Amino acid sequence: MAKLNLLPWREELKKERENRFAVILMFCLLCTGAVVFSAHLYMENWIAFQNSRNDYLKAEIERAKKANEEIKTLEAERERLYARMRVIHTLQSNRSEIVHLFDEIALRLPDGIYFTSLIQKDRQISIEGMAQSNAFITRLMRQFADSKWLSKPTLGLITVVQEGEKGRKYSKFKITFNQLTPETDKKADDGH
User: Could you report how far apart the first and last alpha carbons of the chain are, in Å?
Assistant: First the structure.
């Protein structure tokens, strides 16, 4: 007679396969969970690191902004000081010019002329005066034209004025000219 195996081997094999499948499934789920958890931790750490870098950069940007504002304030202060220094330097270099101007005018003034008014606006000078004759005015203008401190003399007007009923006649005149600063004298003044 043939041997019959009446044991439920198929069900046992099926259970064994189901158990093996469950174990493999659990192992895969655990591995997947571990990978997802480690990826989550890695991303959290990376985000935290990036946020700390962003915070550091923001703090550095704020510090740089404050330093930039401080630099702008210092530059404005420096420009203000430079402007004061330029004014002082200009005053120092120009302080002898008025002496040279009056000296030059006095040296160039011929006999027979006297001044009634002298007005200076920037570098332009206007003189009004009286002369015994027009020849003296012409001579004065030539003297001014030959000067290294004066330039472009221009005669504005000449009128004849008589003093008293039988007095002398004078020529009243107005001359304008520009003041110059010769470079050689300016360099010599800067050296002292």
Answer: 143
Q: What is the pLDDT of residues 157-189, one digit of tens each?
A: 777 777 756 667 778 888 888 877 766 444 444
CATH number, domain 97-182: 3.30.1360.100
* C-alpha to C-alpha distance for 125 and 179, rounded to whole angstroms: 7
- The per-residue pLDDT for range 31-73, each reduced to its tens digit, is 999 999 999 999 999 999 999 999 999 999 999 999 999 999 9
Listed by start position, the domains of the chain span: 97-182
CA–CA dist 102, 90 (Å, integer): 19
Count Cβ atoms within 10 A of the Cβ of residue 116 and give its class: 0-12 exposed, 13-18 middle, 19 or more buried. exposed
Q: How many residues does the chain have?
A: 192
Q: pTM score, two decimals?
A: 0.46
Q: Do residues 179 and 120 make contact, with C-beta atoms less than 8 angstroms apart?
A: yes
